[in-house]
């Protein structure tokens, strides 16, 4: 029976990939459906729904949507239907071509200004212009995509240490640089820590509190940043993980280390591995895991392009901090601090800036934010 699990997982993910990524922006909500190839699309708005006809078929899927202006979606073969919230009756639809590192996409933008049913009628000709009204700042906020950045370790847990770097300091520096870049593009950023501190002296509680920030329905992505280490000083390169069982033949040494090391790391890895096994039959969880894989692929590609480091690939493992699948979540090992060359590079602010820039570009691409 065990040998059939990979096929079951692939089938579940294939179906889940028909689910859209959802982003809330100033004035509109954006739905993005990944396509296997470029195609034609025609759209029609009827009543409270947008019906799109594609020149190809997608796996069947349907589900509720909680973003402004939309309530649900359904995919059936070549038809994609989005149900609009009451008072919304327009949408813009386009197919974006594939480009390096990104597949073709169906994009549906639904305006989220004042719903049509609630817009006041135009004043009669010649009516006096109303006096200007001054509103205090902060009375209304436009919805913005939100990203959680987790700077690995900190406080009583310094992470890996070498003659070149200390993990907790490098991860915090890179996370702060990523935050600054994302904020320039209007992304709301939540940090699990913004100084040298832990969330709890107990490692299990610390990781649990970090992971809970990924369960907020308003969070678009969760990115945990770490520095790798090995007893082999020749080990080097960058790898990006999303949650799941490790690939066949791979050890769990990285997950155990990042989950706290020793007996604590072993126990938390065991718990996370059990969660990974239980998610195989949950299609909603598989949809989020599929999006996590897409985010991981984008981040890994940008990092290798920006740094020229060895590409150790996109992998899966049972990291406790990204075990909850309600939000696309990844863990990045940005290099080996134990390697003489890579550790020395990670100690340089200019190199960390390149790493942070690559992570930010990948996140913005994933969010479809310019």
Report on the structure:
Pfam families: Amidase_3. Residues 1-18 form the signal peptide. Residues 115-141 are annotated as: Disordered. GO terms for molecular function: N-acetylmuramoyl-L-alanine amidase activity. Residues 115-132 have a biased composition (Low complexity). There is one protein chain. By secondary structure, this protein is of the alpha/beta class. The chain has two domains: 18-114, Immunoglobulin-like (Sandwich); 146-367, Aminopeptidase, CATH 3.40.630.40. It is built from eight helices and 13 strands. The chain has a six-stranded mixed sheet with strand order 9-8-10-13-11-12. A four-stranded antiparallel sheet has the order 1-2-7-6, with no helix packed on it. Strands 3-4-5 form a three-stranded antiparallel sheet. α2 (167-184) links the parallel β8 (146-151) and β9 (188-191). The chain is elongated, with a radius of gyration of 22 Å.
